[in-house]
Amino acid sequence: MIFMIPIAKPLIDEDEINAVVEVLRSGNIAEGNKVLGFEEAFKEFIAVNHAVAVNSGTSALQIALQAAGIGKEDEVITTSFSFIATANSVLYTGAKPVFADISRDTFNIDPEDVLNRITSRTKAILPVHLYGHPAEMNTLLEIAEDHNLILVEDACQAHGAQYHGKKAGSFGIGTFSFYPTKNMTTGEGGMITTNNPEFDSIARMIRSHGSKQRYLHEMLGFNFRMTDISAAIGLIQIKKLDDFNKKRINNAQYLSKRLKNIPGIETPFIREGCTHIFHQYTIRVTEDCTMKRDNLAELLKESGIGTGIYYPLPIHKQPYYKKLGYDDTLPETEIAADQVISLPVHPGLRQNDLDHIINTCGKLLE
Fold first, then answer.
1. Looking at the predicted structure, is the pLDDT value of residue 229 above 70?
2. What is the pLDDT of residue 188?
3. Taking the model in full, what pTM does it have?
4. Above 90 in pLDDT, residue 366?
5. 8 Å CB contact between 207 and 251
6. Is the link from the previous residue into 311 a cis peptide, with omega within 30 of 0?
7. Which residues, at least 6 apart from 57, have a Cβ–Cβ distance to it below 8 Å?
8. Mean of pLDDT values over 333-340
9. Taking the chain, what is the end-to-end CA distance rounded to the nearest angstrom?
10. Tens digit of pLDDT for each residue in 252-294?
11. How many angstroms separate the CA atoms of 323 and 317, rounded?
12. Can you list the domains of the chain with their CATH numbers?
């Protein structure tokens, strides 16, 4: 049996286990003081005034858009090169996702194409900090201000990523996921970040059946609350996050230094002034490579190296979106979907794991 280096691996040890046991023994396992403590810790980490903990990154996106007033007849410009929750969260509000193409270098939404997509119905821009590399926030902020648009950040892959010294999730309304594959986890969970106290209040009501006071419901809401069990894990993980991210960055640098000279392989780009925290280490397998991307993925698997393709079918080409009538042509998005492959970069990797990845790629592509 071949030992497999996983593409992702949550790092859980006795600290998290003991924290969960403590909550279970307390009997207070639903939303409580641990959630409040986690919100405080996370808002300090991102450097914002408010943080609202929820049960998933998808819920964070939906609540953020609803609390911002996005609804029927509105349009939200976003990227098709993302997990489907990004666009689905727009649909949940009754609004329409409008897809802009991506920049070739960072895989993030292209601000120039955002400008091309603005109409009288555009209400918000929803960029994704894909793979842990921040989107071009200064330009997107200028566009949002010039056209009176709301800016909601999908930072679900960008816990600790920085753009010119500011953390992802602190520019507009931030949304995060704590799914087990993320840079930190709570098992399942999400967070909304903001500097706006009114938005914070509305988001909290939406999270809990539209209620500030028990059995008094002021608006339509949902049960999107985080449990103290999840928050207990989060309180431990956030203390480790900087170290996790440093290890990811170091692993990525080691990989890039040794893979960048292989013909047909493009290692990750980092824009000046940005801190890429490598939720994924994603390379391109271009037309100059000696084999196709899918063939490389299969051979790496046979050699005990897990890979991921994020994302093989853009959202605008998904069956459900085709049924909705989407027929966009997004050239850079579609090329990326055919070329990208992610290699293991998580902090659980050992030195011999990294060397095995490098040596295997070298042998397969020589």
1. yes
2. 97
3. 0.97
4. no
5. no
6. yes
7. 85, 156, 175, 176, 177, 178, 179, 189, 190
8. 98
9. 26
10. 999 999 999 999 999 999 999 999 999 999 999 999 999 999 9
11. 10
12. 14-236 (3.40.640.10), 242-364 (3.90.1150.10)
Q: Crossing angle, helix 197-207 and helix 57-67, to 10 degrees?
A: 120
CA-CA distance, 59 to 346, in Å (whole number)? 25
Residue 222 reports pLDDT greater than 90: yes
pLDDT digits (tens, 9 = 90+) for 19-62: 999 999 999 999 999 999 999 999 999 999 999 999 999 999 99
Q: What is the pLDDT of residue 112?
A: 98
Residue type, 151: L
Residue 2 has pLDDT above 80, yes or no: no
Rounded Cα–Cα distance for residues 335 and 342 (Å): 15
Enter the tokens of residue 207.
Answer: 């999270």
Contacts of 227 (CB under 8 A, 6+ apart): 29, 30, 31, 35, 55
Beta bridge partners of 222: none
Q: How far apart are CA 87 and CA 89, in angstroms?
A: 5
pLDDT band, very low/low/confident/very high, at 98 (cuts 50, 70, 90): very high
Mean pLDDT of 81-87: 98
